[in-house]
Amino acid sequence: MERYDIAIIGTGPAGLSAALTAKARNKKLILLGSGKLSEKVQKAHKIANYLGLPNVSGEEMQRVFLKQIQDAGITITEKRVAAVYAMGNGFTLQAGENLIEAETVILAAGTAPVRTLPGEEEFLGRGVSYCATCDAALYRGKKTVIIGYTPAEESEAAFMTEFAEKVIYIPMYEGKPDVPETVEIRRVKPEKITGRMKAETLLTDGGEIAADGFFILRESVAPAQLVPGLEMDGRHVKVNRDLSTNLPGLFAAGDMTGTPYQYMKAAGEGNVAALSAVSFLDWKKRQ
Ligand SMILES: Cc1cc2nc3c(=O)[nH]c(=O)nc-3n(C[C@H](O)[C@H](O)[C@H](O)COP(=O)(O)OP(=O)(O)OC[C@H]3O[C@@H](n4cnc5c(N)ncnc54)[C@H](O)[C@@H]3O)c2cc1C
Questions:
Q1: Which atom of ligand 1 is nearest to the CA of 11?
Q2: Which residue's C-alpha comes closest to atom 3 of ligand 1?
Q3: Residue 125 CA to ligand 1 centre (angstroms)
Q4: In what order do the strands lie in the sheet with 207-210?
Q5: Whole-number Å distance between alpha carbons of 48 and 53
Q6: HSE-up of 158 (CA within 13 Å, CB side)?
């Protein structure tokens, strides 16, 4: 398995800035996120407070960022990271069906209000999962429910049909989901997950759905669920001045570390986090 010096999670200003710095410092890096970079950049109407780019639209900023990344020879690996595990001597990242190994990790995945369902965290790993691609094989011949918060999750529902005997898809957005005919679509509002030793039933405003597995697929996962053992400060990742976290070799940058939620702060922190990761790699080499 290929092993990277630095794995960067997120393609907003924090992740892109971290990638540019890591590249300038000649590190072997992988940048994971979206080819469209960040919705929070793309959707901004007018940006007036970014040094050197006065009064640009979000789309213009996205174009300029993308060009700079491409000119630096950095490619974006379009994968969502489902979990990051500290392995003692580095990290293993689960991204779709792939496992990625890295000496250091920079979390730059932004923030999104993640309101979990009652029972969701209690049964995580016991019938509740955040990654269909990772766990579908566990549900061969069984019944699964997928709650998809964006159309991007429709492909996960399609993948699940290769394993599960029955797949129920609950779209949390408008529009007709593009899923295989064998997938049953239910327009209901999930309210609670219940069970005894493991998750057994999803309670909704349209009645109960019993199943063997419940997949909850959102645009973002709360940091502490993404990285088991990560210390938080409220809803933000707890960081030191050099943006290191409580897990040696793991750094965080941008909105994830707290306010102000601004492009310049995110980009600046991406730079600091990458330099701190480089120092950590140098220190590790000397040991
Ligand atoms: C409409 C709007 C307008 C704004 N206007 C301004 C403004 O004018 N000026 C200003 O300074 N700030 C503005 N902001 C705030 C600014 O957008 C954020 O502070 C900034 O984008 C934070 O950058 P970031 O890199 O930390 O995170 P984000 O930009 O949120 O990027 C995070 C990236 O990580 C990816 N990601 C998330 N989870 C995963 C995962 N598990 N695996 C892989 N990738 C993942 C996301 O898809 C995204 O690409 C605005 C925000 C919004 C929503």
A1: 49
A2: 44
A3: 28
A4: 190-195, 199-204, 207-210
A5: 8
A6: 9
Helix %, strand %, coil % of the chain (to 5)? 30, 30, 45
d(CA 251, CA 191): 35
Atom of ligand 1 nearest to the CA of 263: 11
Checking DSSP bridges between strand 190-195 and strand 199-204, what pairing results, if any? antiparallel
Token representation of residue 97: 């069906």
d(CA 251, CA 244): 4
Element (H, E) at 21: helix 13-24
| Tokens encoding 67 | 């060009």
Contacts of 186 (CB under 8 A, 6+ apart): 168, 169, 170, 204, 206, 209
pLDDT tens by residue, 170-228: 999 999 999 999 999 999 999 999 999 999 999 999 999 999 999 998 877 788 889 99
CA–CA dist 4, 50 (Å, integer): 31
Residue 40 DSSP code:
H
Closest ligand 1 atom number to CA of residue 111: 30
Model confidence at 113: pLDDT above 80: no
Q: Whose Cα sits closest to atom 48 in ligand 1?
A: 38
Q: What is the mean predicted confidence (pLDDT) over 100-116? A: 90
The residue to which tokens 């898809």 are assigned: 169
Distance CA 276, CA 251 (A): 8
Q: 247 phi and psi, to 5 degrees?
A: -100, 115
**Ligand 1 centroid from CA 6, angstroms:** 21
Between CA 15 and CA 85 the distance in angstroms is 19
- Protein residues with CB under 6 Å of any ligand 1 atom: 9-15, 32-34, 37-38, 40-41, 43-44, 47, 49, 80-81, 108-110, 220-221, 226, 254-255, 261-263, 266
SS3 242: coil
Instruction: For ligand 1, pick from 77, 263, 269, 271 the residue to mutate: most ligand atoms within 8 Å of CB.
Output: 263
